[in-house]
């Protein structure tokens, strides 16, 4: 079982708005298709770099996964849908060979005044464990991509035991070669793991994949480590939702929601 990243970054720049996907982006279902974490973070990075406005921040990102994203060259395009001094809506599209594979929207809003009194309704996250987990998952899972490119320290549950889970995590490698990850990028790289950290369905027997991920942050995370507290809600004849809270060492920073397809494995 590999615990070392297979590359030095998730993506390598190929020029303006174009990127080569490294093997580190591969998700647990196949070495040929990407995990949603790097995909979401690449779109969030585009939002942050598009017509930056001092005194604003990207507070919410929703990613729609249109097709499996291949481990291959990608291009990102971004535009402003609703301009505004205090509130603006951004839209981005990720494509491969001219075919859209993911789209995202992001709300960029003015930062609250410094004198606003903070409120906190969530319990403090558990202490960061001293030892890293051995990377493991359900039988047949691809471990030598995203799962190994992240460092995991579970405090409740694990990838091999069903039930709600809680884990600290950080990326071992940057999103884009030669860059330092922003706080938003660090949150988005992890956020799409909610259905895995909080897995309550048997991935060996069922296909459980998300069609989207929404990340809403009331403040930017501080530091490399983030704590995810996740659970999955499922109903026969329905679908499933993965829900998670994100925290840094100072407390909760926001929420994650994923809509999940639940189906039988098909050849």
TrEMBL record:
InterPro entries, A to Z: ACOT8-like_C (IPR049450), Acyl-CoA_hotdog (IPR042171), HotDog_dom_sf (IPR029069), TesB_ACOT8-like_N (IPR049449)
Residue ranges that the Swiss-Prot or TrEMBL entry lists as coiled coil: none
Domain Acyl-CoA thioesterase-like C-terminal: 129-262
Stored SUPFAM superfamilies: Thioesterase/thiol ester dehydrase-isomerase (SSF54637)
Lineage, top ranks: Bacteria, Bacillati, Actinomycetota, Actinomycetes, Streptosporangiales
Domain of life assignment: Bacteria
Protein name per Swiss-Prot or TrEMBL: Thioesterase family protein
Limits of the Acyl-CoA thioesterase-like N-terminal HotDog domain: 26-108
